[in-house]
Amino acid sequence: xxxxxxxxxxxxxxxxxxxxxxxxxxxxxxxxxxxxxELGAGKTVFVRGAARGLDVRxxxxxxxxxxxxxxxxRLPLYHFDFYRLSDDDDIIELGFEEYLPGExxxxxxxxxxxxxxxxxxxxxxIIERFYDESGEGRxxxxxxxxxxxxxxxxLLLETLNWxxxxxxxxx
Length: 171
Ligand SMILES: Nc1ncnc2c1ncn2[C@@H]1O[C@H](COP(=O)(O)OP(=O)(O)OP(=O)(O)O)[C@@H](O)[C@H]1O
Ligand SMILES: [Mg+2]
Hints:
Elements: E1 6-10, H1 13-26, E2 31-36, H2 43-53, E3 68-72, E4 76-81, H3 91-94, E5 105-109, E6 123-132, E7 135-144, H4 147-159, E8 161-162, E9 168-169
Parallel strand pairs: 2-5, 2-6, 4-5
Antiparallel strand pairs: 1-7, 3-4, 6-7, 8-9
Helix pairs in contact: 1-2, 1-4
């Protein structure tokens, strides 16, 4: 169990991507989104959805080996993956701060590997895999750490649609 301001349960990849897509659609200002979760949690799935919501036409591929990719949508989308960063990398030379935040929306996978480059106002999302009698699912925990991320999370929760049993409605 995590401590969080809000959580949403998803049952498949499409539902997680949908939440990302709605976030992408409502974004109208720069934001930093820190995506935590183990390998295969669904972080990149979430970013692909967000890219759709931001009208990015390019294919999103995992930036694990290049650390950063930039895409062009309604706002620029910066996709970071710090998984492969090791302690002896010269972080200053990487110059990530320029994008955190920059003119666009930054999604950072494995932010815990380089927390010092992230700004205080970030939307933290922790994706946790679980198994129950219905099979596999994901719990998405949302923690806005500043006023911009809090405003965006409030708008996201308002914009999503729900079934009467409280589950996510993506139709
Ligand atoms: N509810 C769900 N939400 C998201 N992905 C799901 C869900 N259920 C199953 N999956 C599967 O989990 C995998 C998530 O992969 P993804 O590449 O997004 O993980 P990741 O968190 O980015 O991992 P990595 O740290 O390796 O980059 C996909 O194969 C997807 O189909
Ligand atoms: Mg990934």
